[in-house]
């Protein structure tokens, strides 16, 4: 979409601005809202971002808030002055959410911001505060020890045992350094060696590993209004991840789990949360209880499964922001979401190792309604991704280019 077309449409209806559109998180907000005829502007600090090539949105490169937060906020102020109507902001990653939340007063003259301000968001930003809120709300969690010193480390090793995981309270620096959001630890010696590499990443969490495979991971997806009332709610079940155990979802299915929804909404209410979020749990096969993994205060990778099963979280946030009512449908169970490119690559790797049979894998695609990257309505981002991956196979032996996901 051309920028002049976007501005003409934005004069008639509040536009939506979607930040970080390099992967399914942002692409699927664009696709979910475009179906409702919302004018859309895709923004990303990376000029190679797939969503900047979407036919459903105008595209614009913006400053990287992780590199220069003030430049990013000033950019938004300048852009907001040129919009014919207030835009509704949809950041999809923490490095965009936190600056907008922190500087909401500067941005509110130009934008509608359908998520919590920094006073609340910093409790989500801090995973220690997440865990403590869960304990107050009576939500089950893995056994956890917070590590601020070597003494905490020794105590954690005694209380948690091995194997266990390290995860950061503040995740961005950790993810940037290790390209992972958790580190698995197998022994006391490994724990001490790992701590020497991460002790400058702030408070860390040493946690028990809840047993069971990827098929035990469940999510509550919701949109809560400014009074923390739920306007749209669905629950889903991860089927496969890339890489297994501590990766990102490659296939998920809609499945309503009422006790999961109740626990997640109780936690969000304790936090006083407003906005779209993912509350992820793992079912503990030892006792059948759902234990909190984390709260993501944003759209996550497979949020569009909610739309496919009748619960459009993006539309709920948009309509609430502009003062229009939204009544969510009851979700349809059994529908699936997939990133077929990643899932096929993983299946091929398992097949080569003798761990996968082709027919059961193909049968698992029954019920698929959404591919997070490929869309007939919006084909160019998927085509561009495929071309890049083919090039990578030829030039890098199948490894992704720096900054690109699989």
Indicate the topology.
Layout: H1 3-10, E1 16-19, H2 24-34, E2 40-44, E3 58-61, H3 69-82, E4 87-91, H4 94-102, H5 104-107, E5 111-112, H6 118-125, H7 127-137, E6 144-147, H8 150-160, E7 164-168, H9 171-178, E8 183-185, H10 188-198, E9 204-208, E10 217-224, E11 230-242, E12 248-254, H11 258-271, E13 275-283, E14 290-296, H12 304-308, H13 313-322, E15 336-338, H14 340-352, H15 358-363, E16 368-371, H16 379-396
Parallel strand pairs: 1-2, 1-4, 2-3, 4-5, 15-16
Antiparallel strand pairs: 6-9, 7-8, 7-9, 10-11, 10-13, 11-12, 12-15, 13-14
Q: Bin the helical content.
A: 25-40%
Largest sheet geometry: 7 strands, mixed
Residue share in β-strands:
15-25%
Secondary-structure content class? alpha/beta
Rounded mean pLDDT is 92
* Gap between N and C termini: 26 Å
Provide the CATH architecture of the largest domain.
Answer: 2-Layer Sandwich
The low-confidence parts are 401-406
The total count of strands amounts to 16
Which descriptor suits the 3D outline? globular
Tell me the number of structural domains: 3
The level 1 CATH classification of the largest domain is Alpha Beta
Strand order of the largest sheet: 14-13-10-11-12-15-16
CATH topology of the largest domain: D-amino Acid Aminotransferase, Chain A, domain 1
Total helix count?
16
Fourth-level CATH superfamily of the largest domain? ATP-grasp fold, B domain
Taking all Cα atoms into account, the compactness measure Rg is 21 Å
Oligomer type? single chain
Q: Which key features would you list for this structure?
A:
single chain; 406 residues; alpha/beta; Rossmann fold; Dna Ligase, domain 1; D-amino Acid Aminotransferase, Chain A, domain 1; 3 domains; seven-stranded mixed sheet; five-stranded parallel sheet; 16 helices; 16 strands; disordered C terminus
């Amino acid at each position: 979409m051309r920028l002049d077309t976007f501005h003409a449409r934005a004069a008639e209806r509040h536009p939506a601005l979607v930040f970080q559109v390099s992967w399914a998180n942002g692409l699927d907000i664009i696709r979910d809202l475009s179906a409702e005829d919302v004018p859309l502007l895709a923004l990303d600090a990376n000029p190679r971002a797939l969503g900047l090539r979407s036919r459903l949105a105008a595209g614009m490169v913006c400053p990287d808030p992780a590199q220069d937060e003030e430049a990013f906020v000033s950019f938004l102020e300048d852009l907001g002055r040129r919009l014919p109507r207030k835009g509704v902001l949809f950041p999809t990653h923490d490095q965009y959410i936190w600056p907008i939340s922190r500087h909401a007063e500067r941005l509110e003259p130009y934008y509608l911001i359908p998520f919590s301000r920094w006073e609340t968001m910093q409790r989500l930003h801090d995973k220690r505060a997440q865990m403590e809120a869960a304990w107050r709300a009576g939500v089950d969690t893995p056994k956890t020890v917070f590590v601020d010193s070597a003494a905490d480390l020794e105590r954690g090793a005694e209380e948690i045992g091995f194997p266990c995981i390290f995860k950061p309270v503040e995740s961005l620096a950790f993810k940037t350094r290790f390209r992972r959001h958790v580190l698995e630890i197998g022994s006391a010696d490994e724990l001490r060696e790992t701590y020497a590499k991460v002790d400058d990443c702030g408070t860390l969490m040493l946690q028990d590993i809840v047993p069971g495979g990827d098929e035990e991971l469940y999510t509550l997806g919701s949109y809560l209004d400014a009074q923390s009332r739920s306007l749209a709610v669905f629950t889903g079940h991860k089927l496969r991840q890339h890489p297994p155990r501590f990766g990102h979802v490659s296939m998920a299915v809609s499945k309503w789990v009422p006790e999961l929804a109740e626990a997640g909404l109780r936690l969000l209410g304790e936090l006083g949360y407003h906005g779209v979020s993912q509350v992820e749990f793992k079912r503990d096969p030892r006792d059948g209880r759902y234990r909190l993994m984390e709260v993501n205060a944003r759209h996550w990778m497979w949020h569009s499964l909610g739309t496919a099963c009748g619960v459009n979280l993006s539309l709920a946030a948009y309509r609430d922001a502009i003062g229009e009512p939204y009544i969510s449908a009851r979700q349809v169970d059994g529908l699936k979401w997939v990133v077929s490119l990643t899932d096929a690559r993983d299946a091929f790797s398992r097949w080569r190792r003798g761990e996968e049979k082709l027919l059961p894998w193909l049968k698992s695609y029954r019920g698929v309604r959404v591919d997070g990257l490929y869309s007939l309505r919006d084909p160019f981002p998927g085509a561009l991704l495929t071309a890049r991956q083919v090039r990578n196979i030829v030039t890098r032996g199948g490894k992704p280019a720096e900054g690109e996901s699989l």
